[in-house]
Amino acid sequence: xxxxxxxxxxxxxxxxxxxxxxxxxxxxxxxxxxxxxxxxxxxxxxxxxxxxxxxxxxxxxxxxxxxxxxxxxxxxxxxxxxxxxxxxxxxxxxxxxxxxxxxxxxxxxxxxxxxxxxxxxxxxxxxxxxxxxxxxxxxxxxxxxxxxxxxxxxxxxxxxxxxxxxxxxxxxxxxxxxxxxxxxxxxxxxxxxxxxxxxxxxxxxxxxxxxxxxxxxxxxxxxxxxxxxxxxxxxxxxxxxxxxxxxxxxxxxxxxxxxxxxxxxxxxxxxxxxxxxxxxxxxxxxxxxxxxxxxxxxxxxxxxxxxxxxxxxxxxxxxxxxxxxxxxxxxxxxxxxxxxxxxxxxxxxxxxxxxxxxxxxxxxxxxxxxxxxxxxxxxxxxxxxxxxxxxxxxxxxxxxxxxxxxxxxxxxxxxxxxxxxxxxxxxxxxxxxxxxxxxxxxxxxxxxxxxxxxxxxxxxx
Length: 461
Hints:
By secondary structure, the chain is mainly α. The chain has 18 helices and no strands.
């Protein structure tokens, strides 16, 4: 990729010369509008979530908060390892089918994705439940933690959300579901305040978490079904599923590769706290939970950009609009890199104060791992548009290899550093992972463009 300096010069030259790129502006405005919808919802939900976590940290303390974090991470880890996320396939194939008015194939695609979701949920919930005794022996859980983990698997059996999210993103209904996360966050905050006011137990916080996760996923499903019905695709269950390979060429390869890349990344976000809890104890896991939630606020921006960018980038690449494709990716990458750097500097300056206000003196050790983890978040943001761009460029297999290599490196750093460095070791593992993925994605992006004959000389001056 071109350097940030060169890109900045090109951008300045464009503004000074008064050139007009109506299509580029239209796409960027649409992406910005959709991102703002998500930002309004996710920003509020993240803020309320941090307030709720602060209440829980003061009320429960590091050890009990760490137990809750490990239980949730255990169930989520199995969900992310075994469940195929179908939303990428819905966006990639659905956008083309709707453009070509292939309505019969489109409803078959929706049905196929829904069946995959349901099958994966049953598999994931069953495996998570049966594997609890083994996990308890490895992580030295007491009987109460085992009982709580068994109850938490109820939420895993309701984890049908990928196809609904794909439908909502495909039809650009970002505004319609942007309110859901803030609404759930408000209920979670109210529930936490009620539990504290009535001097509830850790079990009450667990049941609150389970109930809200089920409510969120059921609500998403209902919204997606209403959109399909309104668009004339409400009877998708009647569509035949014969000849999937012929009707959707490359479907299984794309779905498995794209999902494996995403799930490898997500799995690292759950494995870390389980390893911290196993080697350093529940109190360290509670401290690390504070670090994770604070950096999640930074990572949310990258996740939103990936969601809103993929549909437009997929259409541009399919239409061989390489110059416009490159400019969109470049401009968004520069914006996210600047945001990530600003967030990192804010953590450096205000991290001690944030931790003190949010969690209290018992969590003072969270500053150094927060600093290292925020560096990883900056690198994650820097590649937030490269990842959907590479999926659009049919580089999912290459990215799968990159993600696999980065995950191996993550695990090596995690298991080597956590026993000696504690919570800081987990943050170091995330930084190594994020740096590897960003550099490799940038190289792949540049090579793929050049393979299509789009070199530096074709860039507009």
